Amino acid sequence: MANGSGGTVLHVEDDPGVIEGVERALERETIEVVTEPDPRSALARADGVDCVVSGYELPAIDGLELLERVRDEHPELPFVVFATDGSEAVASRAISTGATDYLPVPDGEAYDRLTAVVSEAIADGTGEDRFEPVLEATAALQGADTREAVAERAIACVSDGFDLPLAICWFHDPGSERLEPASASHAAREAGVVSDLSSEENEYEAFRTAEVTTYTGEEVTAAPGEEGLLVPLGDRGLLAAGRREPAGPVEELSKPARVLADHVERALSRVERTRERREREQYLRVIAEHIDEAISLMTPDYSEVLYASPAYEEIWGRPVEELYEDPTSYVDGIDPRDREKVRAGNERILEDFERGEFGREYWIEFRVRRPNGEVRWIYSTGTAVELPDGEVGFVASATDITERKRHEQRLEVFNRVLRHNLRNQLDVIRSHAEALADRTDDDHADTILATTDSLARTGNRAREIDRLMSRETREETVDLAAVLRETVSTTEHPAEGVDVTVDAPDTATLVTDGAILETVLESALENAVTYADSSVTVAVEGSPRGWTVTVADDGPGIPPEEVGSLDAGSETDLRHGRGLGLWQLKWGVEKLTGELSFDHRDGTTVHVIVPDLGG
User: Which one has a higher pLDDT value, 165 or 458?
Assistant: First the structure.
């Protein structure tokens, strides 16, 4: 790096962070920096400066358009593109348009490299001829799709373009701390100079320090030729190029070699990202092809299907190939009763995309009619995703929910029977049993009446549970202590001699659903007083989430199989004497997002944590 080279640089940039970094770096070398954020105004200020440093994305026009305009008026003025947001394509265009150099801004070291480039540019002028090989290599690197292909194109640049025929490219192996050959020129292979580099060898030091250096045969052990360049490729590897016989200074090639290294690093980064993306895509494809959901990826306007999993054929009963050929063919498989609903949903999605709204998740239920006439229910979800090329796609999943819908229909029918038919028939049985009770002296009629009342209460409780559990939670401020005392006073005691003791603060307010809370307390108390031998104790204590209610009785305890049934989430064939009470307790606590637990030692103790939904 030249020290104290002086000169004036016009810096065209509107990013405060980059502006500060450039000023700090160049002014250390006594280079005056004139900053201009507007590229249109910068054109008028190009007279009298020694170099222009410009960003890429700028207000009104970009850095390459500014470069073209500067070149029209100042063909020999050094112009460096210092880009935080460029690419290989931008770099290639910059060099072909006449940029002295193109530097990406990946980290803090970029400012040191900029200082060196600007100092040399001020001292030497544009030096465009030396960059012709780099320009050609940049264009070639854009077509490389493997690490090896990148290495081959880099070798071609230095061996042919720089006239350094003995060229080798090594990639770093972090596991062994060695540099392993990835590609070499024909001359280097013929000379037999291609080998691994260990961390003990001199060439490895250039890789470690990440500085482009020149060498002679006396200074290296494995680099080819009597003189040449060592060009680090970031943390990815090292490029070496040399000559058999000295033929003039190679220092003048250091600058274009640094530019080449930047482009090679970018190309390697792109190749690695592409490989990783393909590996992820392959992994996801394997997953998609082994699940029951039909996964599809399409363009937002449904004009092209990019991927459809084999499960599509299982659900629609139609070949996947048909969907690739005609992306709208899936509509033909939708039951005519639901087609308009699906079309309307698709139109809403398209309208959102046209407005640039991509963050929403969509869902819909509809029926599919297979070619054989079978009807299946489908639950489909979808959302926008960003594709690797920066475009937006729409990914959708379709799940066959036919059995769930049939189950819901059965439950609806059973509920209707329970609510209407069973209740009406129980009323008939009760009226006849009352008539029989007036005519006989035995207890058969009374037994019928008691059983009828029990069934009616079960039906009423089932309807009430269904009503509460089916509606949305209604948050309100509730005094838990007051609700508890009221519930205790109204709970019927099936047996005499059971004492109920309440240990609760005067008030215990929280935000919750009051009706569901009352149902939870009622269920716990009914269970306790029904099975207690002599006493029931109810306590209320504060907890980190809200309040804890404990209901303890000295009865025989809940049979383990009944608690196991609750934990499993389904009834068993065992005879459960506690009916719907425990299920009402479980579902109510879940609805309040609380916690429920049981202790079976010395009777039954029920612990209910009732959270404060208000925070």
Answer: 165
